[in-house]
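hiii so my PI (J.) wants the whole complex modelled not just the main chain, which honestly fair. so below is everything: two entries, each one labled with what it is. i double checked the lines twice but i was tired so who knows lol
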Amino acid sequence: MSLNPEIAARLKRNQDGLVCAVAQQRGTGEVLMLAWMNDEALERTLATRRGTYYSRSRQRLWVKGETSGHTQRVHEVRLDCDGDTVLLIVDQVGAACHTGDHTCFDADLLLADGPDGADQLDAAHKPDGAPTPADA
Amino acid sequence: MSLNPEIAARLKRNQDGLVCAVAQQRGTGEVLMLAWMNDEALERTLATRRGTYYSRSRQRLWVKGETSGHTQRVHEVRLDCDGDTVLLIVDQVGAACHTGDHTCFDADLLLADGPDGADQLDAAHKPDGAPTPADA
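here's the output for the full assembly
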């Protein structure tokens, strides 16, 4: 099988022939991971509904969970406006991340809101560093 | 200002010096768009909490909404396990997509569940194309 030509014609692949793929958990909306697909990976994903990607390091297709058992059942696939990214709505079995974390974005928080929901950086980035009225 | 060296050391940039950036709507969890960041775009995003990206076509920074008014207030930024993608939790003003769509993934559905929630392709992809018992 090869990818539907009408879909293939809408893809805008990078220099390595790949598009980005964002996997999102159905229901909760959690963004699980970002990976890459070539035409064959997308075709396999659409045909089998198992999340299937292209490994840039191993230079071959991989079915998510083929060794870990942490497979993805794909419920929806959407192509973005410029054709270089697909969004997959999936049911993830077990951890999405190879580290064992639930998602690949769990471990490294670079910026957050303050504990009261306020923006932590607002005060810190005031031009003159002066305390806010509330601090005075 | 330059990017915090401890963050910069964790980034795994592509050959153009960029990482992927996925923007997700706070609250609803909708995936809005995928764009790219260089170190300066990430530093500006963290410092200003305005979604700021690197345009590969224009080869310069762009603040999301600088012309359209469709800005992004950034509440959270997370780096993924291999350092090549950031996830931004944002409040999107207006449409995220340059087409006017709410998200960049609204217009082109490649695969969906059936109207009853069943997988539409299951029957179509049975190896021999035979009807399922339910069809018989």
